[in-house]
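U., I forgot to send this yesterday:
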Amino acid sequence: MKLLLLFISLGMFSLAGLSQDQEIDSSEDEVIVKDAVVHWADSVFYSHEKYKFENFRAFYTEEYFIQVMRSRMYKERVTDLEKSKKLGRYKKSDAEYEKEHKELEDAYNKVQKDVDTFKFRASYYQVSFWSNIQTNDGITVYYEHIVKLNNDYKVTEAVINSSIGKKSDKTEILYSTDVKGGKKKSKQK
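Result:
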């Protein structure tokens, strides 16, 4: 019986881990990641233009996930308490309500501050980066790179996943270090 409970618990924890990135609003991180990838591409490629992004994912740490869930729990308790009072279901005195409300608000604000200042939020971020990139053939080829960034939004890995428009297998990306005298700027759509 204990073994069955252990397996059920492990299953629940693994499902929670898989859904972590679904439950945390990562829109702010997504903007920062996209800016960091464009900056990286500007510094690496001789020329690229008309870029786009797909499939952004943030792989948040368990510690950060727990803090976010604690914050939500306190916020929900504050909201439920306020709703209960408004609907006349709160049976204690006004002084007790004020005390309980203040305690919950203070707890929420403390936990939310911890969330806002959390240092190690993500194990890594990942996004598909598509761009027309100048090649050694003199043409631009539409490449997809799967780009990984660390918690500090620095590119740690970029792997070519696909390309559209290559003339031959000898077609290679023209990097800024391949060309003397500088580099062109990127152009967005």
